[in-house]
Amino acid sequence: MASGYIGTGAADRDPAIGNDTVTSSKISDDAVTAAKINILDDALAATDAHIMVADGTDFGNVAISGDVTMTNAGVVTIANNSIDSDHYVDGSIDNAHLADNAVDGTHIALGSDAQGDVMYYNGTDYVRLAPGTSGQFLKTLGASANPAWGTVVTDTSGAWTSGTATTGKALVMGF
After folding, report:
1. Residue 130 sits in which domain range?
2. What is the total count of domains within the chain?
3. What is the pTM of this model?
4. Would 114 be classed as within a structural domain?
5. How does DSSP assign 37-106, residue by residue?
6. Per-residue pLDDT tens for 49-90?
C-alpha cells in the first residue's frame, strides 16, 4: 500500500475517505487495535485480568470481584466454600459427591413410610417392607429371595422330653 493512500488502484488514491467507504475486506488482519475502536476509552489503561462491562451507554474496564477470580488468560476460578446447597440444581449431587455417613434416616424416604418399616435390598433397589402384625417375626427366604413376616406356630400337644428330637414344634416361653 502506498503511503498516505488506501487501496491499490488509481481510483483508490483519494486522500479523502468518505463515511462507510472502508469495508472489512479492505482491512488487513490484526490491523485494528483496541485504541482504534471508538467504544473503548483511550484514557483507560489495559489492566491485567480485567473485563469490559457495559453500563448501557459506555464500556468500563472493571475487575472481577467477590468469590470469582480470573487470570489474564481468561481462566475463571470460583473460591472454595463459596457455593452452598442453595446454589445446586436439584438432583445434581450424585453418590460420588456425598461424604461418608452424610445420609441419615431423616434423608431416606421410601414412600408411605411408617413406624416399624424395614428397609431391605430387593436385588435392584432398597425398598420398604411394611410392619408385620403383633407377634410376627422377620424371616429370610434364602439368598435369592426377599425377607417376609412369619407367624410363630405353637403346638401344645405332646410333651417335651429332654434329648428327644421334636420336628415342627417351637418352644414358647412365657415372659
Report:
1. 109-151
2. 1
3. 0.41
4. yes
5. -TTS-TTS---TTEEEEE-SS-EEEEE--TTEEE-TT--EEEPTT---GGGSPTT---GGGSPTT---GG
6. 888 888 888 777 888 888 999 988 889 999 998 988 888 888
